Amino acid sequence: MPDPTDKQRKRSRVHQLMEAACGNAVRPGPAVSELVLDGIGKRYGETVALRAASLSFTPGIHTILGENGSGKSTMLKILSGVVSPSEGRLLLDGREITAGSPRQMQDRGLSTVFQEVFIAPHRTVADNIFLGTNGFVRRVLSKTQTRAAAERLLGLLARFPIDPGAPAGSLPLAAQQIVVIARAFARLPSILLLDEATAALDYADRDRVFETVEDYARAGAVVIFISHRLEEVKRLSDRVTVLRNGHLVETLRREAVSSQRLLDLMAPEAHLHAD
What we know:
By secondary structure, the protein is of the alpha/beta class. The protein has a single domain (about 15-35, about 60-80, about 100-265), classed as Rossmann fold (3-Layer(aba) Sandwich). The chain is built from nine helices and ten strands. The protein has helices at about 15-20, 70-80, 100-105, 125-130, 145-155, 175-185, 205-220, 230-235, 260-265, and strands at about 35-45, 45-55, 60-65, 85-90, 95, 110-115, 190-195, 220-225, 240-245, 245-255. The strands form two sheets. A six-stranded mixed β-sheet has the order 6-7-8-3-9-10, sandwiched between helices. Helix 7 links the parallel strand 7 and strand 8. The longest helix is centred in the last third of the chain and has 16 residues, at about 205-220. The chain is globular and about 55 Å long.
């Protein structure tokens, strides 16, 4: 697959609204064609959390599915630079990289939304969306630009208005989750990791977020999605990888995905029936 350049990449709605609000003060993450795990494993003492996982992520939506303790959160933490692997290699477009810290991975164009909501409660919503963006902007954004970008991002993701000037800690949990998702998009990442990122949202807001994620992936981003909801997995995924007890079991393409097939791979001992 040829490397997409900035000019070749389709512009997502997120890219368009960020440019409208901030002009050339923001830049997208570097284009990525493939992120590869090559024999990645992680041990905590005698406990093996992930065993020699080899997997390729390419533009589109790739879901990681598994029960609690399957290794999916460990894989995401390794990709995010939160923890280091005990063995194996990470390769980005064919080059071996070290995921030594979250900042290193962010600088390579990766943004992560964890299931836990991390905000600065006494800072404004707009400030929270642009927290830690040094290196992702060509110059410091003005208050007018950050507010305009925040309004546009929140309007895209949320069903009800969220005031960019409100203290983030004053918002209900679902709105705080939207703010955290908006923060990830504001970085214009090439690789977007979503760890149960919509768990706190109702169906209407979840649908708006999914539409934005689908559009972003169609524009050439690599989206790695973790969810336990099978209806979400079937809707969003171009590929699904199932983990069980720290082992990578199988990767399926969209056309091979069904609830029963996924349940059989996740828990073959359980005679569950779906569809």
